[in-house]
Amino acid sequence: MDNEILFKERQRFKQWWLWLALLGVNSLFLFGVFKQVIGGRQFGDKPMSNSGLLIASGITLIVMIVFINFKMETMIKKDGIYVRFFPFHLKFKFYAWDTLTKSYVRPYSPIAEYGGWGLRKGLLGSGTAYNISGNQGLQLEIKNSEKLLIGTAKPQQMAELLKKLGQEKL
Predict the structure, then answer these.
(1) Which parts of 12-154 fold into alpha helices (H)?
(2) Rounded to an integer, what distance in angstroms lies between the CA atom of residue 158 and that of residue 167?
(3) CA distance readout (Å), 6 to 57, 71, 81, 164
(4) Average pLDDT, integer, range 162-168
(5) What three-state secondary structure class fits 26?
(6) Intra-chain end-to-end CA distance of the chain, in Å
(7) Are 107 and 152 a contacting pair, CB within 8 Å?
């Protein structure tokens, strides 16, 4: 195959503190629904209306379902780099090698450079970042001066492949 997948990575949010916070908020609202809507006793000193409690519970459940479905996929093929951060990107974004002025793996500071993890706009001209966790990423600079950092949990493997393909551009 001419355009076989040479590198593939799929990442999901696995931070325990994030899931603990989401479960805690959902549990609190679901407990309120069972106590007030089903049990008929008010939940708290200044309770919400039943419909407000149901709506708030629904919203927190939807947020949790969205987080469960977040995933970032990165592929490197002979023709370039493909990346998708679902559900923000339904199709892969493609970056051809000949459109890149720089491509290399580097350490970065998610909070200092991009304000955290996720789909982020960088601070002070560092561009855009797609990252799930960690502090290693594939830095791309595109001929139109756009910068993109793609987080990776496999920095060594990615760097070796870039060198092998002759596409490590510093």
Answers:
(1) 16-32, 50-69, 110-114
(2) 11
(3) 44, 20, 10, 11
(4) 94
(5) helix
(6) 29
(7) no
18 Cα distance to chain centroid: 13
pLDDT, tens digit (0-9, with 9 covering 90-100), for 16-69: 888 899 999 999 999 999 999 999 888 888 888 999 999 999 999 999 988 888
Task: Tell me whether strands 128-131 and 147-151 are parallel, antiparallel or unpaired.
Answer: parallel
**Is pLDDT above 90 for 170?**
no
This prediction's pTM: 0.80
CATH architecture, range 5-9+71-165: Roll (2.30)
Q: Do residues 139 and 106 make contact, with C-beta atoms less than 8 angstroms apart?
A: yes
* Two structure tokens written together for 108: 């970065």
Give the integer Cα–Cα distance in Å for 115 and 123.
7
Q: How many CA atoms lie within 13 A of 18 on its CB side?
A: 15
Q: What sections of 35-169 are H helices per DSSP? A: 50-69, 110-114, 155-165
Q: Has residue 2 got a pLDDT over 80?
A: no
What amino acid is encoded at 119 in this protein? Answer: L
Owner of token pair 């919400």: 48
Check residue 126 and give its pLDDT: 83
**Residue 85 CB: number of other CB atoms within 10 A?**
20
